[in-house]
Design goal:
Blueprint: E1 7-12, H1 17-28, E2 33-40, H2 44-54, E3 58-61, H3 67-74, E4 80-83, H4 85-91, E5 99-102, H5 110-118, E6 122-125, H6 128-145, E7 149-151, H7 154-163, E8 171-178, H8 188-191, H9 196-199, H10 209-216, H11 219-232, E9 239-243, E10 249-255, E11 260-264, H12 270-278, H13 309-320, H14 324-340, H15 346-359, H16 368-389
Parallel strand pairs: 1-2, 1-5, 2-3, 3-4, 5-6, 6-7, 8-9
Antiparallel strand pairs: 8-10, 10-11
Helix pairs in contact: 1-12, 2-3, 4-5, 5-6, 6-11, 6-14, 10-14, 11-13, 13-15, 14-15, 14-16, 15-16
The structure holds nicotinamide-adenine-dinucleotide and magnesium ion.
Residues 13-19, 40-41, 43, 62, 103-105, 108, 126-129, 153, 205, 207-208, 211, 269 line the site of nicotinamide-adenine-dinucleotide.
């Protein structure tokens, strides 16, 4: 794209952790980007504040009950206001949108992402759940439409950055780094009684509640293994995970000549966000610089898959294929929500997910309808299983 043309961005989930950091990036790079659409699920106050500051043409508030509040604040400013989940699927298709940054959380990202790809929009993908649920369908559709999906997730951005200039060279394998989360080194006895407050304290990253719990349970790394498979067209054996508690090396690629490339930096999501929006250009930014002298020791360990069962379950879902990862994701969304309400223990989360993976009917080549069905069915079954335990 011409460097002088501003890319017009739709941010789905602008009030969240990734959404607000995306707005920071856009503010610093005003010559390159403009805000066309902002959306939030229920935080009307922040959405209004953002809209008054960044002057998008359109906002969407998910919660219908908050429509009047948002409309009264923004309509006089000439900003169009819509509400409800369906509105997301329409606004991503507007002619005035170039890139859709998916920073909403969970399965809710699936349909709007499909609609955006169908309309030929470039995707900056933070919402990893979309690729976990329906990676085959999404990547097929993107290919068919000639649409690029640029990763925002820091590990996948690292791999993408390592691959620039190497797209013709086959990948031998990739190594995803994992911080290990707040419970690294803990045993199952300890984990059996941890409360949500402990799980919500991530050592290196400040993120939304769902991904923070996923990081504590290693499900986040499991979802990222599946995300990597689809983004980089890899087999499960080509994806390794190594625990690297300092979160300085964001991930690595090994090529067929044995060379390994890594991408490094301080943990700061604004860099991968900016890289995804600005690709192929690197734009000058004042993000804090990394110094090796501040980190004399970068360390690496094997992930403890005995204690943290979710990572193994994600590999299992990947190997099984079909709708299994959709089941894993839906069951995980249910148990995380329950854990955040103190309605299930930390370790029981994996038990419910595993039991759903064993009980929901397997579909070898799911259609979109099948995925929607699988998601709904799994949620009901998972809710039931949680009730039985609690
Ligand atoms: P968050 O909870 O902080 O924000 C979520 C945003 O999505 C909010 O704006 C919320 O209003 C909106 N939202 C929530 N549910 C919605 C729904 N049902 N419909 C429409 N909008 C909805 O989450 P986050 O930490 O910013 O994460 C967003 C996504 O990015 C997740 O998929 C996460 O895995 C991924 N991600 C986040 C980080 C990070 O550092 N936070 C890093 C890598 C990937
Ligand atoms: Mg990540």
């Amino acid at each position: 794209m011409d460097k002088n043309i501003k890319k017009r961005i739709a941010i789905l989930g602008s009030t969240g952790s990734i959404g607000t950091q995306t707005l920071e990036v856009i503010e610093q790079q005003k010559d390159h980007f403009s805000v066309e659409v902002l959306t939030a699920n229920s935080n009307a106050e922040l959405l209004i504040k953002q809209a008054l500051k960044y002057k998008p043409n359109v906002v969407v508030i998910g919660d219908d009950n908050k429509y009047d509040l948002v409309f009264d604040a923004l309509d006089p400013q000439g900003i169009k206001v819509y509400s409800g989940a369906n509105a997301l699927s329409s606004v991503v298709q507007m002619d005035s949108v170039d890139t859709v940054l998916t920073a909403l959380v969970g399965y809710a990202g699936l349909l709007p992402t499909i609609k955006a790809i169908e309309a030929g929009k470039t995707i900056a993908l933070a919402n990893k759940e979309t690729l976990v649920v329906a990676g085959d369908l999404i990547t097929r559709l993107a290919k068919e439409k000639g649409v690029n999906i640029f990763p925002v997730d820091s590990e996948h951005s690292a791999i993408f950055q390592c691959l620039v200039g190497e797209f013709h060279n086959p990948i031998e394998k990739i190594i995803l780094t994992a911080s290990g989360g707040p419970f690294r080194g803990k045993n199952r006895e300890f984990l059996s009684s941890v409360a949500k407050e402990q799980a919500l304290k991530h050592p290196n990253w400040e993120m939304g509640a769902k991904i923070t719990i996923d990081s504590a349970s290693l499900m986040n790394k499991g979802l990222e293994v599946i995300e990597a498979k689809w983004l980089f067209d890899l087999s499960p054996e080509q994806i390794d995970v190594v625990v690297h508690p300092q979160s300085i090396i964001h991930s690595l690629v090994q090529f067929e000549d044995s060379s390994i490339k890594a991408q490094l930096g301080l943990p700061d999501m604004r860099l991968p966000i900016q890289f995804a929006l600005g690709y192929p250009n690197r734009m000058k930014a004042d993000f804090p610089r990394f110094s090796f002298l501040d980190y004399p020791q970068l360390t690496f360990e094997k992930p403890d898959m005995e204690t943290f069962k979710n990572l193994g379950l994600a590999y299992e879902a990947l190997n099984k294929g079909g709708n299994t990862a959709c089941v894993l994701n839906a069951a995980n969304e249910v148990v995380v929500e329950k854990f955040l309400k103190d309605q299930i223990g930390f370790l029981e989360m994996s038990d419910v997910i595993e039991s759903c993976m064993n009980s929901i009917s397997f579909i070898e080549s799911p259609t979109l309808e099948d995925y929607i069905q699988t998601d709904q069915e799994t949620r009901l079954v998972a809710e039931e299983k949680v009730k039985q335990i609690f």
